[in-house]
Each structure stands twice: as C-alpha cells, then as structure tokens.
C-alpha cells in the first residue's frame, strides 16, 4: 500500500466531518457529537490501518471491521465514501424515505459494511467470534472493533473481553472511542470507567492509550499491532465528543441535536479551515 | 434424547470440519464424544450466553455452521436480543439447541423451566422452531439441521422414549405427522406432549371417541395445511403443549383457525401464566397443571360433552 502522509489524513478527516455535517443537517438527525469523536480513528483505519479494498471487498483475506457504535453511522458512511466503498448517491440516500443507508448500519459487504449494528455491546462478541473462526482457518486477517465508551457498561462486552483474553485472540483489535460522555452526561457521573486501561490489562489484553485525534499517534499505533504476543489488543483512544467544532466539543447537546442554519454555517467555517491544512 | 442427538452430531462433526459446537458451560457428559473425536470443533465459552450467541454469529459470518447449547431460558431469554439482532437479522446458520422443554427440570424450579421460549423464538424474524418428541426424531432433526442455512431453534426435552418401531416419524421440517386417525376430534401436540396425546387418544378410544393425533413438531413455519385439514374434518380441535398458554402452539393454531372461519370448538391445553407454589418432577407437574394423559383425557371428554349438550 502506498504511503499516505499524515497531512492527507487531516484533510480527509476534515472532508469527512463536512460530509457528516451535510448528512445530519439534511436529515435533521442526531449523533453528530459521537460521529466527530471517532472520525479520526475511522480515517486512520481505512487509510492505511486496515487491509481492506473497495476493489475487492469480499476478499477472504481482508481485515474485518465492526462498527459497534452504530449510532455514529454518518461518520462510517462518509469514510467509506472517501475510501471508495460508497458513492455520493449512496450518501444522498442516507436516512431518507426509500433511501439507501439507515441511521444504524446494515450488513453489506460489497459496500464495506461487515455487520449490522446499533444495539450496543454486540460488536465485541461478534468480533471475537470472527477472530476465532479466522484463526481456525489459519488466515492472517485481523478483526477491528470500534466501540463507544458507553458500550463498556454492557455486560456482554465484558463477557467478550474475558473470552478474547482467555483464547489469546491476537488477531482481534478493540478500539475504544473514549470521549468520556455518555448519552445523559459525563461518563464519570454515569458509570465511571476509570481506571480503564487497567481493566483491560486485568483481562489479559495488550493495551495502548493514545490521543484519538492525532494521526501521528493513530498511524503509529495501528502499525504496531498486536501490542503483545498471544494477546488481543485494545486501543484506548482519548477523544472529544464533537471534536473540531468549537461549540460542539464536550457538549452533551450534540449527542442529540442537529445544528440550525447559523450553527451549521459556523461549524462549516471551522471545518473548511481544516480542509485547507 | 439429548444423548442421541449429540451422538449423531458427533458423527456429523467428524465428516464436516466446518461444524462447531458451543456450550455455555452446560451439558456434562453429553459432549464427550464430540470432545474426544473433534476437539477443535468444540468450544465451552463459559457461563456467558450473550457472548455465546455473538461468537456463534461472528463465526457464522466467517462461513461456519454453529450450534449453541444451553438450558432453554438462558439460551433463548438471557441472550434473546443477540438472537434477534446477531442471528436473525443477519439470517445466519446458527442452530440453538435448548434443553429442558417445559417442566423437564422439575424440582429445579422456575428459573429452569422452558415455558416461554416457543412464544419468543416464534416471534424472531426468520427463525425456524422444531421440537422433536422421540429419540429417533431428535436424531432426524440433527441430520436435517446440518444443511439448514438459516436460524434454527431445536427444543429438546428429557423424553427418553422411542418412536413406534424405533422409527422416525419426522420426515421434513415444517410437515406435521399424523400419528393416529380418529373420526371425532383432533389433538395437535408438540414435543413431550405428543406421547401424552397418544395415550389420551387411547383412553378416549376406550370411551368410544375417535381422536386424531397430530405431531406438530415444527412450530414455525406451522404446517397450516395440516391445521386446515383438521378444521375441515373435525368439530373439535385441541392443542397440547408443555409451554405457557401465551404464544406457543395453541396460539399458532388459533391464528390459523380464526382466519379459516372454523366454527367448531377449539381449546388450548397448556401451562397457565401464573404458576402455583408446587414442587415436583415433570410427571408430577404435568398432572398438577392438567398435562398428564388422565387429565388431558378428562379435559377432552368434558369439552366434547359440554359442547354437545349445548
């Protein structure tokens, strides 16, 4: 794969954020904040981090990606579009009557969507099952699962973490979009997840905590997988809900609300600045 | 029944390396053969039913044919949403093998009763629900399940009984088997209750009442033609199941009868929603709740008499 410079990642991420803003404003939909916290991680994964290709989407040797935090689908769709899996027409049909893409992703491998998600806490088990089967087939493919921090409240998530550690699934990579904001307030006040990295260590995972908005950190981390021999890897990505739109950052309102015209124009100005970098 | 089912599955696993067996840490002894002949295809996931269903779905997405075993309420209710989304929404060849139909686990009590599962599994999109009644039919279901390419729920009971002549009456999933022909009424039964129905029919015959016994081993898709044939032929139709009155065989048959314009007498014989504080084995509880051959015989006699006297 051709080397992609970090500067390009920033530019792609800014374009993706603009696409997301369009999709959400057009459909008056929710979840722009959770989209913006994981955009950079998705761009890192799809542009160099994972072995996937829109030219050969069903390649049995491809890396598998499970977008467990399905409610942030506009971010996934916009990245899949930038990577060539989805067309502009696909994005135009997002969340409209008779459209193409619903608010929670539906499995469509040809379009780069491996698994239907939307109910939290399913991705880690599905990913562990895939990683287990892939190992049985002696394939070198890896399975990446991106989860929200809220999904760490679900018991099923910890069942899967225990399983993956026990079975030494070093082809499984979990990425936590640790934006520290649940759906009704800060994680710290809902269910405090800290110390988070220690929990994974105790479950026999290899752990790295990174800045989830730094492409330098994201790319370096994805290039260094797995973190430990015979252990699944988890990237605790410190992120910010609503990242890169100043008035959205760390503001719960943007888990739900859709920007009005003035807010949209303001967000657009800030994001356009990122594109020119 | 369970033992025979898994012995058959062990044979199948030996010839098809793509088949996997998952258990949520239950089934002591029953997996011995699979574990010794195909250890790579067996996986005890621990006491974690939700994870088991998610794992199975992930494996199925990678081309595996996966069986999941646990006691019925843990398999079908604890992991219900994983079944709905991971298995059914993706339409995956994951086979759920639930043990403990109805009161199979008798004295173990309410937590272990399988009495809502048929209603819940019947409502799952694309799920097929099969309930074998004899050892031979359980083996037949094992055979049929291998090439089944969609979600399948296999409900097992403890019944260690053999079919007549040690032969399977279950020919195909979705096709009811008529075990006995009678002129007066039809008794449609499922699972452990098929043998009870056969005994009740025998008792009724001694009183001059001819009863057709239909083994409705497939709850979904229901053999509607078999139900409609009963509606055409009989004034009295009864269903008999070791399951709650809500949403099981009785409900499924009632739906077909109501839409068919059936004008005769129809009654569901099943377990009431509210259980009594009674302790006992399956036979004891069957009798308590009116599911023993004698109680079923009386119930049918009363229903027929009352209707005729009107």
Report what the structure shows.
The complex is a heterodimer of chains A (277) and B (310). Chain A has a single domain, classed as 3-Layer(aba) Sandwich (Rossmann fold). Chain A is an alpha/beta fold and 277 residues long. Chain A has a 5-stranded parallel beta sheet with strand order 1-2-3-5-4, sandwiched between helices. Chain A has helices at residues 6-27, 32-49, 73-82, 88-92, 123-136, 155-166, 187-190, 196-202, 215-223, 253-256, 261-275, and strands spanning 64-67, 143-148, 172-178, 206-211, 233-238. Chain B has 310 residues and is an alpha/beta fold. Chain B folds into 2 domains: 2-156, Thiamin diphosphate (ThDP)-binding fold, Pyr/PP domains (Rossmann fold), CATH 3.40.50; 174-309, Rossmann fold. In chain B, 41% of the residues lie in helices and 20% in strands. Chain B has helices at 2-15, 32-37, 49-61, 72-78, 80-89, 117-122, 135-146, 193-206, 224-233, 249-260, 282-288, 293-309, and strands at residues 19-23, 42-44, 65-71, 94-99, 128-130, 152-156, 177-180, 185-189, 211-215, 218-220, 236-244, 265-271. Chain B is globular. The A-B interface holds A 107, 114-116, 118-119, 122, 124-134, 136-137, 155-156, 159-160, 162-163, 166 and B 40, 43, 45-46, 48, 50-51, 53-64, 81-82, 85-86, 89-90.
């Amino acid at each position: 794969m051709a080397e992609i410079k970090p500067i390009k990642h920033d530019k792609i991420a800014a374009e993706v954020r603009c696409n997301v803003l369009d999709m959400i404003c057009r459909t008056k939909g929710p979840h722009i904040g959770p989209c913006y916290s994981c955009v950079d991680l998705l761009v890192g994964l799809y542009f160099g981090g994972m072995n996937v290709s829109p030219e050969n989407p069903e390649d049995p040797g491809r890396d598998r990606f499970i977008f467990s935090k399905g409610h942030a689908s506009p971010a996934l769709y916009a990245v899949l579009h930038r990577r060539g899996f989805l067309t502009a027409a696909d994005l135009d049909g997002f969340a409209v009557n008779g459209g193409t893409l619903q608010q929670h992703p539906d499995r469509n491998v040809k379009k780069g969507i491996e698994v239907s998600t939307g109910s939290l806490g399913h991705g880690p088990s599905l990913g562990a099952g895939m990683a287990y089967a892939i190992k049985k087939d002696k394939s070198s493919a890896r399975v990446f699962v991106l989860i929200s921090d809220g999904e760490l409240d679900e018991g099923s998530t910890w069942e899967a973490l225990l399983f993956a550690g026990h079975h030494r699934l070093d082809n499984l990579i979990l990425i936590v979009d640790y934006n520290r904001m649940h759906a009704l307030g800060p994680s710290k006040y809902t269910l405090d997840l800290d110390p988070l990295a220690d929990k994974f260590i105790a479950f026999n995972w290899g752990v790295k905590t990174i800045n989830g908005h730094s492409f330098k950190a994201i790319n370096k981390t994805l290039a260094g997988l797995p973190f430990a021999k015979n252990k699944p890897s988890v990237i605790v990505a410190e992120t910010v809900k609503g990242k890169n739109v100043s008035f959205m950052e760390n503001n719960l309102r943007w888990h739900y609300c859709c920007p009005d015209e003035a807010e949209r124009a303001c967000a657009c100005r800030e994001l356009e600045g990122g594109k020119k970098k | 029944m369970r033992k025979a089912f898994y012995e058959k599955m062990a044979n199948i696993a030996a010839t098809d390396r793509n088949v996997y067996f998952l258990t949520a840490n239950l089934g002591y002894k029953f997996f011995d053969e699979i574990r010794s002949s195909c250890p790579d295809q067996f996986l005890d996931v621990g006491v974690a039913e939700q994870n088991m269903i998610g794992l199975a779905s992930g494996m199925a997405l990678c081309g595996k044919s996966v069986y999941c075993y646990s006691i019925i309420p843990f398999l079908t209710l604890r992991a219900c949403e994983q079944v709905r989304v991971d298995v059914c929404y993706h339409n995956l060849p994951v086979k759920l093998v639930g043990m403990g139909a109805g009161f199979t686990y008798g004295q173990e009590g309410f937590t272990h009763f399988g009495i809502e599962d048929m209603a819940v599994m019947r409502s799952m999109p694309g799920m097929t629900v099969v309930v074998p009644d004899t050892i031979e039919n359980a083996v037949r279901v094992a055979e049929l399940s291998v090439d089944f390419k969609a979600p399948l729920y296999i409900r097992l009971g403890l019944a260690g009984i053999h079919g007549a002549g040690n032969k399977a009456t279950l020919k195909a999933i979705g096709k009811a088997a008529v075990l006995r022909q009678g002129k007066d009424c039809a008794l449609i039964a499922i699972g452990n209750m098929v043998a009870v129905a056969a005994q009740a029919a025998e008792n009724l015959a001694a009183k001059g009442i001819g009863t057709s016994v239909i083994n409705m081993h497939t709850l979904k898709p229901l053999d509607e033609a078999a139900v409609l044939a009963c509606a055409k032929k009989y004034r009295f139709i009864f269903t008999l199941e070791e399951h709650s009155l809500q949403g099981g065989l009785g409900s499924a048959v009632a739906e077909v009868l109501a839409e068919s314009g059936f004008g005769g007498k129809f009654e569901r014989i099943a377990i009431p929603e509210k259980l009594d504080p009674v302790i006992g084995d399956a036979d004891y509880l069957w009798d308590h709740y009116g599911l023993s051959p004698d109680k079923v015989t009386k119930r049918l006699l009363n229903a027929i008499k009352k209707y005729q006297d009107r």
